[in-house]
């Protein structure tokens, strides 16, 4: 099954962007996943191709219109389409590795990239959009966030990463940050590779890596150590 991504945007030229390179790009060429960038303005009905209007109740900025976006979404997602409909939004639920894995085993996603002050709430409710945030900061639009989400998902598709085991040991996969990594040369500017990693004792190495993951998580992301039950751990 090919993972199909449909991105609704005012700037389709931003895609595939970095997703056309490296692992994601090779997977795109191989047909492991597909990407269509849909111009939202094509679904406006006036000669100026207007997609926004002033906010009800007054205030600064503009709001993306429900009617225009509904036509775009209905075009991208026909009846029976099982793909989740995502809205990249700073007020959305934070994106997690667990959600990324859920998306990666699904048929794809329809992703709406917001602009201006936001999207008419009626559209979110009427089309069942799942609001997703990639962090507690504001971007000029949802396109960079959509690229981040798709990069995280595509790398988990079957055959995209050369070594599937490497993905299982990364940060957030077991509820912890990833342990430090080392490679040649044996010594760099007076700093040597930790002896345990060159010992050949796989049990000691595994124990050291786990210990380092726990140490780093405690120092940098203690919130992960108190995550609610259900967070995957090893």
Task: Outline the structure in words.
The longest helix has 19 residues, at 202-220. Helix 1 (22-30) links the parallel strand 1 and strand 2. With 234 residues, the protein is α/β, with parallel strands linked by helices. It has helices at 22-30, 66-76, 97-104, 121-126, 143-154, 164-168, 202-220, 222-225; strands spanning 3-9, 33-39, 52-53, 63-64, 85-94, 108-113, 130-133, 187-188, 191-192. Helix 3 crosses helix 5. The chain is built from eight helices and nine strands. The chain has a five-stranded parallel sheet, with helices on both faces. A two-stranded antiparallel ribbon has the order 3-4. The chain has a two-stranded antiparallel sheet with strand order 8-9. The protein has two domains: 3-154, Alpha/beta knot; 165-225, tRNA(m1g37)methyltransferase, domain 2 (Trp Operon Repressor, Chain A). Helices cover 32% and strands 18% of the residues. It catalyses: guanosine(37) in tRNA + S-adenosyl-L-methionine = N(1)-methylguanosine(37) in tRNA + S-adenosyl-L-homocysteine + H(+). It is found in: Cytoplasm. S-adenosyl-L-methionine binds at residues 114, 134-139. Homodimer.
